[in-house]
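Consider this pair:
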Amino acid sequence: MSDTTTVNKPAPGFFWFLAAFLGFAVLAALFTSGAGSRPNPRDDERKALADAIKAEQAANLAKMGLEKGKSAERLTKAVESLKALPTPAPSQALVPGSPTQLKQAATAPAVTPAAPVAPSTPAAPK
């Protein structure tokens, strides 16, 4: 008779897969660490461009009068001018299902159906 008991052993294929994956990871790490870093030929160009952009931005901020530590009074003036603007009128648009629309629908007068129109007789052709 054969043995019908099952043994809960992990599948050996999983461990082989794990060992192969880790082996490739170690090899990849060795190859990339030994190769060193290659210099990017556009690094100097990118650094020069970034410096030019920062200089232009600083010039624009100085032209607008926004300097570090000195812009608080301009910002206060801007906030005051925004507060002085008139408040916009509330919108008259109704959103279906909103409380305002439901109140208006409840208080609206009942609509009476229009009287039926009698069919007209077509004119006789001449």
